[in-house]
Amino acid sequence: MTNQRGFTFIELLVVVSIIGLLAAIAVPQFSAYRTRAYRAEGYQLADAARKNIVEFYDYTGRLPLDNAESGLAKPIAIRGKYVESVTVENGQITVVYLPQYQQRRYSAPMILVPIINQANPTGPLVWQEEKG
């Protein structure tokens, strides 16, 4: 009998199944990571708008009507790698993602709404995210 070298079929099946198991775990994790990256950029770009809206509200006692009144550039000028525009309308901030990212889960427009405490209208604004 000759001495055979190499892998048996069973060994190859074990290796393939281990690789498949690792891929089944890694792919959803990576997808969730990418989604968080999209959303993080939206929050980052909306942060400047939030600060401007808070300053405007503290100074005037009302919410700004649009980007210009809140001291921001035109909506289409505020963009990022994943974000198409950031719009302020009556104090509400809407972040719209680029079309190629709108098909993904959780990529609907992000809407941040300022909540004014009626018991203390001169107090700080609280922001609430609504589904777009």
Polypeptide structure, described:
By secondary structure, the protein is of the alpha+beta class. Helices cover 42% and strands 19% of the residues. The chain has one domain: Glycoprotein, Type 4 Pilin, CATH 3.30.700.10. The longest helix is centred in the N-terminal third of the chain and has 52 residues, at 9-60.
How are the secondary structure elements laid out?
Blueprint: H1 9-60, E1 83-89, E2 92-97, H2 99-102, E3 110-115, E4 126-131
Antiparallel strand pairs: 1-2, 2-3, 3-4
Keywords:
132 residues, alpha+beta, Glycoprotein, Type 4 Pilin
Short description:
With 132 residues, the chain is an alpha+beta fold. The protein contains 2 helices and 4 strands.
The poorly predicted ranges are none
| SSE string, helices as H and strands as E | HEEHEE
Which overall shape is indicated by the principal axes computed on the Cα atoms? elongated
CATH superfamily: Glycoprotein, Type 4 Pilin
**Number of E-type strands:** 4
Helix residue percentage: 40-55%
Distance between the termini: 72 Å
